[in-house]
Amino acid sequence: MYLLPILLCVTAAQAHYRFPKLIINGQAEAQEWTSIRQTKNYQTNSGVTSVSSPDMRCFQNRAGTGTASVAAGSVLGFVAMSSVTHFGPVQFYMARVPDSANINSWEPAGNVWFKVGSISAVKGSGPLTSDEKTWPAYNKDKVEFTIPKNVPSGKYLVRVESIALHQAQSVGGAQMYLSCAQVEVTGGGNGTPGPLVAFPGAYSANDPGLMWSYYPIATSYKAPGPAVWTG
User: Fold this and answer.
1) Where is the signal peptide (predicted)?
2) How many distinct structural domains can be found in the chain?
3) Contact indicator for 68, 19 with CB cutoff of 8 Å
4) In the chain, N or C terminus with fewer CB closer than 10 Å?
């Protein structure tokens, strides 16, 4: 009689994931946590459930150790271990590290983040589904975006965020899986990224983008946070 609850717990644990490797122009890092700050879920693959938690910044377990060099306009991505096994949007943010700060230990608090990419729901003429037809990042083992060519050169934290909506029928049910990479952008431009937002602060627990309805079936979806800055 106890078999079903046990199986459900095992299935839930296997469905979690993490983002431990950076991908630069299609080439993934050989080792985990090379230029990505090790996250608190490095052993459990669990997600962040409180949008008011400081874990919404980088969910980090320890300070960074390495920095990747990447040219503005390049495709940057994250490996999902073992894949993005929950449906929902995947978004990307960047935060400029002050010239006087150590990138390994800098804490990205306050209004420092700007959105540079969003893999959200595919709009259709009918109800949205909870599968790959609606969610392009679902079940993928990597997610990518293009660094805007006009982003100024310098050191940045790049934050990937997968918002899992499978249990988001009520407030607090969404799960955030995230990591922060440390990169130095070269060959950048003179753009002014924005709007700038803070984590925590950019999202509210009641944000419609953190909710999902199986019934009535949703017909539209807007990811939380600011607009994407394209440069």
Assistant:
1) 1-15
2) 1
3) no
4) N
